[in-house]
Amino acid sequence: MIESMNTAILIVSGLVALSIFSSLLSFRIGAPLLLVFLCVGLVAGENGLGRIKFDNVHAAYMIGSVALAIILFDSGFHTSLKTFRAALWPATALATGGVVVTTAVVAVPVHFLLDFGWLESALMGAILSSTDAAAVFFLLRVGGIHVRDRVRATLEVESGSNDPMAIFLTLALVGLLVSKGPVSPVAIGMEFVTKFGIGAAAGMFGGGLIVLAVNKMGFERGLQPLAALSLAMALFAATEEMHGSGFLAVYVAGLVAGNARINAPETMRRFQDGLTWLAQIVMFLTLGLLATPAEFPAFAWQSLAVAAVLIFVARPLAAWICLLPYGFSRNETAFVAWVGLRGSVSVLLAILPMLVGLPQGRDYFIVAFLVVLVSLSLQGWTIGAVARFLGQIVPKRIGPVERLELEIPGARHELVSYRIVADSLVARGQRLPRWAEPSLVVRDRKSYSAHAAKGLKPGDTVFLFARPERVPHLDRLFASAAPAAEADSRFFGDFALEPGAHMKDLALLYGLPVEPADHEMTAADWLVRELGHDPGIGDRVPLGEVELIVRGLSWNDHISEIGLAVEPTRIDAPRLPVFQTGTELKAMLKRWMRKRA
Q1: In a domain, 586, yes or no
Q2: Where does the UniProt annotation place the signal sequence (predicted)?
Q3: Cα separation, 472 vs 268, whole angstroms
Q4: 495-497 and 414-419 as β-strands: parallel, antiparallel, unpaired?
């Protein structure tokens, strides 16, 4: 028995280590990392080199559910309220209406290609309707892709919040297939309201409880993140027992806890980063081991066709319909449509038909697995190229910055350390703000006070206190200069304008068609009004033959710098023939009505 236990430990730890070391190869060849984890599980499975036989669907579903709850709690914890507010309505539309549209569209090819009934086809559509939070968060946050703020926020909030809707829809359809009797639509609607209402309420209560426990219970520093996570898992299970959405509850709890004043937030973030990676690895490995590649050929071409409809028809249609009321441009909608990656959630939900013993239960799992492989390979591998093609990548306006943050328990300030590089603004004589007076300067391995140092020089290490929201401003002062090719006029305009400049002055200087009612407005206020949402770096509004561009934001998210492009830039090129905006559709309708008249 001891030998079998040691063998099991060796196998599990070896697979996890292999997945971690495979990440080095992933970064070299540009492969989506989560696809690598899935393939490691396939290779280790019974048809692969490892010959490990694993067919316990109950254990796989439990492992996947716990791992997904951990990932969603971490997703909420890392989502700022600013991001959540900026993307709340478009992301909610995608997470609800988008799931329903995707389910309906995908059901059509499934019905005709796989000989499923319409209800069974709808179940397959629901299984494939959710975008994968782990894949999206990895590609947007870890993969080095910096896209426009509103687009990034929408994708992040959607990927973290659409899993509960997909899970509810899948469970509802499984219940219909199992019951084989009439089910009232009113009953399903009431169950939806109950499940999501309980989940949201439990998440807010649980998030507050986590903050209270971490701040007031006096845990040893290393136990704080464990206490928070254990409470989150207890919340997940308790909410499910109350017939609420446990996945929604842990996401909301993470959102509440991550945006509250909580002790040792950086310690918690570092712990959760590592644990979330482990959860992703274990979940993808488990799902990879559960798959049997020998079964794939029988469903290969049908799954490829379903994946094509999902990627090129269902997701784009859902994105366009859901984002139409919110003023997204054609290219922004196209990028949101392309980043609808399918991942572990779809494979996890495909286990449910096997758990309840539905006919063709294994077929759901095989098709979902193959569609996920196609989605991660095609969309995950090309997301950077598509973002550049659609003009969604925002160039960095500052270069690398060497910063170290030190937590101060119970304080509203952070102790921040910077190493001064030769081409930074500080090294070139830029004065520090009054609120950022250095507390210590280290030069040539000797320590000096700010007064004794007599100015800052390249190579110095500076320690100073600052509020967390003001740290990005310090980054600009201490960072090296951005490469000229990145921060040039093609994206940020030919020159800068003062955000407080009045529109009447701009109209006189540049001959811009400004309405008389807008003459007394500042350029910043005019931009915010025309955008219709919180500004993000890179947002642009045409004004006559020029464009006004948001070049920078202050620490409190007000526009601090505006760019003016003398000629409209090609950032939003190419002009796609699809995804027309609401304004364009209204204009098309007016032209059609005039022709009819």
Answers
A1: no
A2: none
A3: 21
A4: unpaired
Cα–Cα separations (whole angstroms), residue 592 to 194, 576, 588, 589: 45, 21, 6, 5
CATH of the domain at 466: 3.30.70.1450
Same domain assignment for residues 559 and 453: no
Residues 163 and 23 in one domain: yes
| Residue 537: C-alpha distances to residues 148, 196, 540 (Å) | 7, 34, 9
Shared domain check, 190 and 85: yes
3-state helix, strand, coil in the chain (%, to 5): 65, 10, 30
pLDDT of residue 485: 44
Domain count for the chain: 3
Using CA atoms, how far apart are residues 196 and 302, in angstroms rounded to an integer?
34
Cα gap 553→82, rounded to integer Å: 13
Whether the link from the prior residue into 574 is cis, omega within 30° of 0, is yes
Which one, of 87, 210, 262, 234, lies nearest residue 160 by Cα?
Answer: 87
Quick one: which of 484, 491, 489 has its CA closest to 572? 491
Same domain, 379 and 416: no
What parts of the chain have a pLDDT lower than 50? Answer: 484-486
Structure token pair of residue 181: 């009797």
For the chain, what is the total number of helices (H) and then of strands (E)? 24, 9
What is residue 540's DSSP assignment? E
Residue 566: its pLDDT value, please? 75
Same domain, 309 and 211: yes
Residue 288 belongs to domain spanning: 2-389
Q: CB atoms < 10 A from the CB of 145, how many? A: 18
**Residues 131 and 26 occupy one common structural domain:** yes
Give the span between the Cα atoms of 528 and 533, in whole angstroms.
Answer: 7
Q: How many CB atoms lie within 10 A of CB 555?
A: 15
Query: Does a structural domain hold residue 373?
Result: yes
Q: Which residues of 371-392 are buried (b: 16+ CB within 10 A; e: fewer)?
A: bbbbbbebbbeebeebbebbbb
**Structure confidence at residue 380 (pLDDT):** 82
Strand order across the beta sheet in which 461-466 lies? 403-406, 414-419, 461-466, 438-443, 446-448
Question: Is residue 417 in a domain?
Answer: yes
**318-329 tens-digit pLDDT:** 999 999 998 888
Alpha helix stretches (DSSP H) within 497-576: 503-510, 523-531
- Residue 564 β-bridge partners: 495, 548
Q: What is the 3-state secondary structure (H, E, C) of 387-432?
A: HHHCCCECCCCECCCCEEEECCCCCCCEEEEEECCCCCCCCCCCCC
Q: Are 564 and 548 in contact (CB under 8 A)?
A: yes
Q: Please, are residues 437 and 491 in contact by the beta-carbon 8 Å criterion?
A: no
The residue from 478, 513, 532 where one domain ends is: 478
Residue 253 token pair = 């709890």
Task: Give yes or no: residues 447 and 357 share one domain.
Answer: no
Q: What is the pLDDT of residue 486?
A: 47
Report the distance separating Cα 361 and Cα 350, nearest Å.
8
Give CA–CA dist 368/345, Å, rounded: 10
- Identify whether residues 295 and 414 lie together within a single domain: no
